[in-house]
């Protein structure tokens, strides 16, 4: 007898969310109280003299604002196997590794059952709002998810990327079933040891179940674009596998081969259909709907450093809705996307007031002197840095994210992600964020569209080996571009950084001419392979947009693959 899975009650989930956000202030006080009661015996809190107090006023008076570096010695003791309550009341048994693309190496972040529960809560909440707008049938999902290996730390704790820790948790699969979101690929593919082979099998499973696929998702939009760029290269091989019912020899792992053998049967009609559809497309425009006719939307994190991939994703998706997934980090979740019909560029996230205790540092004042404000005290139109207190041992932790308050949903604020604070191009008095870089690249890459070419990916570096120092922008382009076009692109990049400190410094030559370096095709794939080789999961990969001198290996990959270089003559 087939076990009947109980589906989530969408109306009830929305009702609970509405009720909670109407009482956001009290929910925040109760959440802080719960966190401090559960973890009051932890050494970190004991040393700060809270003495059992759980109110926000005492908490803020006793507990300092911290960065990851401040907590690193405590986390290291946990990693090394200390079983005493250091940051949390209950022992931490699992460690998450951040993507590592910001600093060049992953950070260790505590992960526990409470953090898993907040993850599933935010999944369920945004699913409810998504399903109300875009109802799905009980089919399957093409989930382009990958799990890197979990390892053991010196102290015997399980360590893996945050996404791996979630995907490997038994509650994840149950929640996906309840959300009608079962992955079309078997576990052996998701947990396969080689992501190139897993990606190929994800695509093959998607094609086998093409009529049943209801939506396509991945953690980040980059993974979805990467998957369909790969499809362009391997579609004929996929068709051959389907036609013969035999898996290509490129898949070498026995566990993956045997799992795929159960799904793959000779189907020449399906192979002919896919071949016909692929040959009928113009430059792969609208590919996704041709392959998967019943897909309702595409889902993944599409804001921040993922925005540059939206143009290519829309090319593949045609008029399918793109829905940006929820807002969080390896350290914890913050907000859910409860307005799924809004395009990703305008996506906002409503803070769930019971998944952590949140504070915000106003950025219009001097940050070192600015006093953090509570969740319900933020002002619409202002920008803030996010501070999180979580159930997993982070107290008044500076996340480093800059958000803008766009409004309120009942009494809980709606946030728009702006940028990471520490991802800045700066030499003199100039300050250019990841968003500034993205806008400059968008403006300059428009000059390529007449050549019918696209910027596939990009990064940047501040080169201080020259005097004066200058910005270096790395581009990977889809084909050959005339020198005069790239020279103009270089000038356009330089002019597009409109920060007053940058412009004035360029005019007096306190910052040298911007340099555009074009790298050969496949360079950013080498960077991805480098991170995956270090243990990162493809699901969690973010192209590093600003490569500092401490991130030497990635800088070497970029510099060793430069094929052309141009200096700006804009100033």
Automatic annotation (TrEMBL):
Keyword tags? Ligase
Q: Which GO terms describe its cellular component?
A: cytoplasm
- GO MF term list: acid-amino acid ligase activity
Q: Which InterPro entries match?
A: GH3, GH3_C, GH3_M
Q: Which Pfam families match?
A: GH3 (PF03321), GH3_C (PF23572), GH3_M (PF23571)
| Record-annotated GH3 C-terminal domain positions | 435-550
Ranges where the GH3 middle domain occurs: 349-420
Q: Does the keyword Transmembrane helix apply?
A: no
Which family does the entry's similarity section mention?
A: Belongs to the IAA-amido conjugating enzyme family.
- In Swiss-Prot or TrEMBL terms, this protein is called Jasmonic acid-amido synthetase JAR1-like
Which organism does this sequence originate in?
Gossypium barbadense
């Amino acid at each position: 007898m087939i076990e009947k899975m109980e589906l989530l009650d969408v109306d009830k989930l929305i009702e609970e969310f509405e009720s909670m956000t109407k009482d956001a202030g009290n929910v925040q006080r109760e959440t802080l109280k719960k966190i401090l009661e559960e973890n009051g015996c932890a050494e970190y809190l004991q040393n700060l003299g809270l003495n059992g107090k759980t109110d926000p006023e005492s908490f803020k008076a006793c507990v300092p604002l911290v960065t990851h570096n401040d907590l690193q010695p405590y986390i290291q003791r946990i990693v090394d196997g200390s079983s005493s309550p250091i940051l949390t009341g209950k022992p931490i048994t699992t460690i998450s590794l951040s993507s590592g693309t910001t600093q060049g190496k992953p950070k260790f972040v505590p992960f526990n059952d409470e953090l898993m529960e907040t993850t599933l809560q935010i999944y369920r909440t945004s699913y409810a709002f998504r399903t109300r707008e875009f109802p799905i049938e009980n089919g399957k999902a093409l989930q382009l998810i990958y799990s890197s290996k979990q390892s053991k730390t010196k102290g015997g704790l399980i360590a893996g990327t945050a996404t791996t820790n979630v995907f490997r948790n038994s509650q994840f699969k149950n929640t996906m079933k309840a959300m009608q979101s079962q992955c079309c690929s078997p576990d052996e593919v998701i947990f396969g040891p080689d992501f190139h082979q897993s990606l190929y099998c994800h695509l093959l499973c998607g094609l086998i179940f093409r009529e049943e696929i209801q939506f396509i998702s991945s953690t980040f939009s980059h993974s979805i674009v990467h998957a369909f760029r790969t499809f362009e290269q391997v579609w004929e091989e996929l068709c051959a596998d389907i036609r013969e019912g035999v898996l290509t020899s490129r898949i070498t792992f026995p566990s993956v081969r045997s799992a795929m053998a159960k799904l793959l049967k000779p189907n020449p009609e399906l192979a002919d259909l896919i071949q016909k559809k692929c040959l009928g497309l113009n430059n792969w425009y609208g590919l996704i709907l041709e392959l998967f006719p019943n897909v309702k939307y595409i889902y993944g994190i599409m804001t921040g450093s993922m925005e540059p991939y939206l143009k290519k994703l829309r090319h593949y998706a045609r008029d399918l809705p793109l829905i940006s997934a929820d807002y969080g980090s390896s350290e914890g979740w913050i907000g859910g996307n409860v307005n799924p019909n809004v395009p990703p560029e305008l996506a906002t996230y409503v803070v769930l007031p019971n998944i952590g205790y949140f504070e915000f540092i106003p950025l219009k004042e001097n940050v070192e002197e600015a006093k953090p404000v509570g969740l319900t005290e933020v002002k619409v139109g202002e920008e803030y840095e996010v501070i999180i207190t979580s159930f997993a041992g982070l107290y008044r932790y500076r996340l480093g994210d800059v958000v803008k308050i766009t409004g309120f949903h009942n009494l809980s604020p709606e946030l728009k992600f702006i940028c990471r604070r520490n991802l800045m191009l700066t030499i003199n008095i100039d300050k250019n964020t990841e968003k500034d870089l993205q806008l400059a690249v968008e403006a300059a890459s428009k000059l390529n569209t007449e050549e019918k070419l696209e910027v596939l990916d990009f990064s940047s570096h501040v080169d201080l080996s020259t005097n004066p120092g200058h910005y270096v922008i790395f581009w990977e382009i889809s084909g050959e571009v005339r020198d005069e076009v790239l020279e103009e692109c270089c000038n356009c990049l330089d002019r597009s950084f409109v920060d007053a400190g940058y412009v004035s410094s360029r005019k007096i030559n306190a910052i040298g001419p911007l340099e555009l370096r074009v790298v050969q095709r496949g360079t950013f794939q080498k960077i991805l392979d480098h991170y995956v080789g270090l243990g990162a999961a493809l699901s969690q990969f973010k192209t590093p947009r600003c490569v500092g001198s401490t991130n030497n290996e990635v800088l070497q990959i970029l510099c060793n693959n430069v094929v052309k270089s141009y200096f700006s003559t804009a100033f």
